[in-house]
Amino acid sequence: MATATTYGARAHARAQEGARAEAMPVVPASAWPAPPCEAGHLVWAETVAGGNYTHRVLARGTELRLTDLRGDACAHLLLFAADRPWERLNVADTVKIQWNAYLGEDRLLLSDQGRVLASVIADTSGRHDALCGTSTLVRNTQRYGDGTPQSASPAGRELFKLAAAKNGLAPRDLPPSLSFFQGVEVRDDGALDFTGSAGEGASVTLRAEQDVTVLLANVPHPADPRADYTSTPLEVLAWRAEATPPGDPLWEASPEGRRAFLNTAEFLAARGLA
Residue 120 and residue 93: Cα distance in Å, rounded? Predict the structure, then answer.
């Protein structure tokens, strides 16, 4: 179809309506073929290709499930309080306050204000990382020959910059990120062992405990030793649900977690949000 004229370009563009690619958002999300929730509650349905990114603002209580479809996805995650991006995921506090460097079910993702941004409510992978962050332009250029967003081997931080810009954020707003589906373990001598993936179909489900801005980059883990840039599709589904209530076992899992939930509840109550 000729696209040399405005009419031809318009006709070509309109001819694409209804076409589907393997990795793309489903709009509306309710058109997703097998929603994991009550009908009409799905608010985000997308497959993110390897070497790509996505972003969304989610309401408090929303549950977000990430699935490694083929065993080589790596979901690098950043979270920001939706209406005050200066409150953001703090990986150091997430690890330090919970006395555990390994993510998994019943762990909390904490902000730099000592509040809960999200909780991990289900996990079938167990291969995650809160230590290494994501890949960088310099490192990917050294390893793969290029790390720019439009290349065949984009770096996670470069993709985060694009996602951030679409939410009014600048590079200086980007803290260290978490990684799901590709992990590391710390040896006795302090060195890191790359644990790789749990395999295709593994998933992790988060619950937003505040309104949050979610940034995701699906790129190889920086500790992945393979010479080739290896990254396969990531499924992203989110649906309306309820925030964790007082008295829930997750609130009482540890004194530190209880304090973080209380900090969150007090802040939301003062704003008339809970």
Answer: 16
